[in-house]
Design brief:
Layout (H helix, E strand, L loop, with lengths): L3 E2 L1 E3 L2 E3 L4 E5 L7 E6 L3 H19 L3 H17 L1 H12 L3 H23 L4 E4 L6 E8 L2 E5 L7 H12 L3 E5 L6 H12 L7 E3 L4 H9 L6 E5 L2 H14 L2 E5 L4 E5 L5 H13 L9 E7 H16 L19 H16 L3 E4 L16 E6 L4 H4 L6 E7 L2 H9 L6 E5 L3 H10 L4 E4 L19 E2 L9 H4 E8 L2
Parallel strand pairs: 1-5, 8-9, 8-11, 9-10, 11-12, 13-14, 13-18, 14-17, 16-17, 18-19
Antiparallel strand pairs: 2-3, 4-5, 6-7, 7-21, 12-20, 15-16
Bound molecules: nicotinamide-adenine-dinucleotide.
Length: 479
């Protein structure tokens, strides 16, 4: 019998009659735990608790908020091996990446502990004599934080930490597929000294729990990370209730490789960006746009490197890729591998289901060549270890192909030309631009987010997080 994990509402563990198992994708016989599935009534209870806690929490001193966030960050960092193993076990990313993500989550709490102290405002003279004006920031209120399954420690951290630092209360709804790591974050933050009701955790299916949350008039702001399709419905619901909304969604990120690129750098950057974490990163490079002279050498070197990639149980040290997250994602990846071939692309390497010692969702990373920008594999987000090479005549054509997408999260270029690198930084239509670096892998102290259909609303993370988690007040004083 595996352990049962409850929702957290108003400072209490609230059990639910209904629970869902958290299955290890490296070994489907292994159940990580049984996680509560909240009801719509639980969601209302959580929103009411967050509302009741808001007045007290929003009037705490910056020192009190610093202390709690700092303590939470310290515990996360001290337990990063344990948290990273749990993450790898329930999500399937290599344990080293899981530990890295736990470290990042801890660092995010430390950063936003500092942000609680770094308050500022403006004092101005009015255009009318004798009147003074102050422009200050206040918390927004009750924030709904809705997160996906691919970064189940880091993304909750980068929503919960700033929301708390700036004095908001939270109802947190993680992805149902990977609830263990988010549960640990909520537990650690609660025990760091939060008053009851400031952080509430409701787990369960998005269609029921997430939808109930975003359609409630009791929520003042919704921070969502997930797919474009769900993001759109979240935004529509938020507009109806008048809640402020921030969406981070999918990507179809291009990586350009120019003739003058250093080949080993190009291969290392492309393999990392396209396949690491089984391609299940919103910033993954799924379109590799390669110019004529280097194309064949690049493809050959990619295939050689891919042959050496070790795909195995996420908890085994030294692996390159774990399994994909579940059967549904595996079926989707295999379907796109089929679609690509039917569209006339050449499957140059991989794409087979792999058998390992335990039953899991193992997939050999796949590389397509001879693809065109209009193919579905080059337009739709697959979210698996599948990348397509597009041949381009020169830099100008490569840039045009890179920008020809409804998405705009991340983009990259591998080149030794300062001229092309500088031009690309200015003209790539994406929120993140990487030169000689993978399109994925971001720092925690700078803004993160995309353009076009990838993002909506203010940026997350770094000093820019306050744009979403605070509201500006302009106060006039006549002596
Ligand atoms: P998803 O959209 O299926 O789910 C995201 C969250 O929304 C989950 O918690 C889910 O339960 C909830 N949800 C589902 N239906 C809902 C509804 N009707 N109302 C409210 N909430 C609802 O996404 P996913 O499969 O968990 O994650 C993968 C997606 O996330 C990919 O598209 C990926 O690109 C994207 N992603 C984006 C970023 C980014 O920062 N841009 C980061 C990570 C992942």
């Amino acid at each position: 019998m595996s352990t049962a994990f409850s929702n957290l509402i108003d400072g209490h563990r609230v059990d639910a009659g209904d629970r869902a198992p958290d299955i290890n994708p490296s070994n489907t016989a292994d159940t990580v735990g049984e996680y509560a599935r909240a009801t719509a009534a639980d969601v209302e209870h959580a929103i009411a608790a967050a509302r009741a806690a808001f007045d007290g929490w929003s009037h705490t001193t910056p020192q009190q908020r610093f202390d709690i966030l700092d303590r939470a960050g310290t515990e996360i960092l001290a337990r990063k091996e344990e948290l990273g193993r749990l993450l790898a076990r329930e999500q399937g990313k290599p344990v080293a990446d899981g530990i890295g993500e736990a470290g990042r989550a801890g660092a995010i709490f430390k950063y936003f502990a500092g942000e609680a102290l770094r308050q500022s405002g403006d004092r101005l003279d009015s255009v009318r004599p004798g009147i003074e004006i102050e422009v200050t920031r206040e918390p927004v209120g009750v924030v709904a934080a809705i997160t996906p399954w691919n970064f189940p420690l880091a993304i909750p951290a980068w929503k919960i930490a700033p929301a708390l630092a700036f004095g908001n209360t939270i109802v947190f709804k993680p992805a149902e597929l990977v609830p263990g790591s988010p549960w640990m974050i909520a537990d650690i933050v609660q025990r760091a000294g939060l008053p009851a009701g400031v952080l509430n955790l409701v787990m369960g299916p998005g269609s029921r729990i997430g939808a109930a949350l975003v359609s409630s008039p009791g929520v003042d702001a919704v921070s969502f990370t997930g797919s474009q399709e769900v993001g759109r419905s979240v935004a529509e619901a938020a507009v109806r209730t008048g809640a402020r909304v921030q969406l981070e969604m999918g990507g179809k990120n291009p990586l350009i490789v120019l003739d003058d690129a250093d080949l080993p750098t190009a291969v290392a950057v492309a393999v990392n960006g396209a396949f690491f974490q089984a391609g299940q990163r919103c910033t993954a490079s799924s379109r590799l746009i390669v110019t004529e002279q280097i194309h064949d050498r690049f493809v050959q070197a990619m295939i050689e490197r891919m042959k050496a990639l070790v795909v195995d149980d996420a908890l085994k040290p030294g692996i390159d890729l774990g399994p994909v997250v579940d059967q549904r994602q595996l079926d989707k990846d295999l379907e796109y591998i089929d679609v690509g071939q039917k569209e006339g692309a050449h499957l140059a390497y991989g794409g087979d289901r792999l058998q390992r010692a335990t039953e899991g969702f193992y997939l050999e990373p796949a590389l397509f060549t001879d693809t065109t920008p209009g193919m579905r594999i080059n337009r739709e987000e697959i979210f698996g270890p599948v990348a397509a090479v597009i041949r381009a005549k020169d830099y100008e054509e490569a840039l045009a192909i890179a920008n020809d997408t409804p998405y705009g999260l991340s983009s990259g270029i591998v080149t030794t030309s300062l001229k092309h690198a500088s031009h690309f930084k200015r003209h790539a239509q994406s929120g993140l631009v990487m030169v000689n670096l993978p399109t994925a892998g971001l720092d925690y102290h700078v803004p993160f987010g995309g353009r076009k259909k990838s993002s909506y609303g203010p940026r997350e993370q770094g000093p820019y997080a306050k744009e979403f988690y605070t509201i500006v007040k302009t106060a006039y004083v006549a002596p």
